[in-house]
Amino acid sequence: MPQPTFFETYGAFIMLFVFFIFIYIVTIRPQQKRQKEHENLVSSLQKGDEVMTSSGLVGKIESVKDRYVSVRLNDAVKINMQKEFVSSKLPKGTINSIEAQ
What is the C-alpha to C-alpha distance for residues 93 and 23, in angstroms, rounded to an integer? Predict the structure, then answer.
């Protein structure tokens, strides 16, 4: 009876390992990178920043507290929301350019 080759013996384990490495590179690592970038964004929020929320609202930050920010959407509307729901910081003057359209 011939001796089984290395691949015949450990082939399934190697393929499983390669599969998990592939899943890590394709899904888990990019998600961790996005999460880290979002944490950096949330920790860097300051009064006067123009932001977009996860629901698409655009406004200017009026105050920053531990877990919450106050965002002025226009002259009459101000909302308090959790920092985590700020999806992006916009360049200065974005609100003015939107209102001018």
Answer: 41
pLDDT digits (tens, 9 = 90+) for 27-41: 999 999 999 999 999
pLDDT tens-place string over residues 68-81: 999 999 999 999 99
The CATH-assigned architecture of domain 46-100 is: Roll (2.30)
C-beta separation of 59 from 51 below 8 A:
yes
d(CA 52, CA 14): 45
Enter the pTM of the model: 0.74
- What is the C-alpha to C-alpha distance for residues 16 and 42, in angstroms, rounded to an integer? 37
Helix, strand or coil for residue 6?
Answer: helix
* Strand stretches in the chain, DSSP E: 50-53, 58-64, 68-72, 78-82, 86-90
Q: Is 68 helix (H, G, I), strand (E, B) or coil?
A: strand
Mean of per-residue pLDDT scores for the chain = 92
